[in-house]
Design a protein that fits this description.
5-stranded mixed beta sheet; 21% strand; alpha/beta; globular; Double Stranded RNA Binding Domain
Length: 153
């Protein structure tokens, strides 16, 4: 009887330790994310991402300003081509992207990539009438993340 009680206590202790470890690691899938932190990025892509998160997620995912409060961290790079030639072939003719961006969603510790994607601002329809640049890139990236979260990845 004492051995059975000892075995039961050990099993219970192991189960509690496993649950504590799982909680300490944070969310492993995208559907459990509620708060994200966005790192500073070139060409103010981070500002556009903040606006798009507010617009597209309607409060389901909150952008926090303190990294310690976040469930995940968004990091990224972007590039923007400037000049008349780039504007003519990119914006007006829709032949290439003027702005591109690639972001990764990392776990709270910044050690595991939960999601990653890239986007550009090229638009074959609408050309100069449509918004472009970093705003378009941010909108597309957040839409891709939202779709991935809805699919439960």
């Amino acid at each position: 009887m004492a051995q059975e009680a000892d075995l039961l206590l050990r099993i219970l202790w192991l189960a509690c330790m496993g649950a504590a470890c799982a909680l300490a690691q944070g969310p492993r899938n995208l559907t459990s994310l509620k708060k994200i932190f966005i790192e500073k990025m070139d060409n103010d892509l981070d500002q556009y991402l903040r606006a798009e998160f507010s617009k597209q997620f309607n409060g389901r995912v909150t952008v926090v300003l303190d990294k310690n409060d976040a469930d995940a961290i968004v990091v990224g790079v972007n590039q923007e081509q400037k000049g008349t030639g780039a504007k003519i072939t990119g914006r007006y003719l829709g032949l290439h992207d003027l702005a591109t961006g690639a972001v990764s969603l990392l776990d709270k510790e910044g050690k595991i990539i939960l999601w990653s994607d890239e986007a550009g601002d090229r638009s074959l329809l609408g050309g100069p009438l449509r918004r472009g640049g970093q705003r378009q890139v941010a909108g597309r990236l957040v839409a891709k993340l939202k779709k991935a979260m809805e699919n439960g990845r």
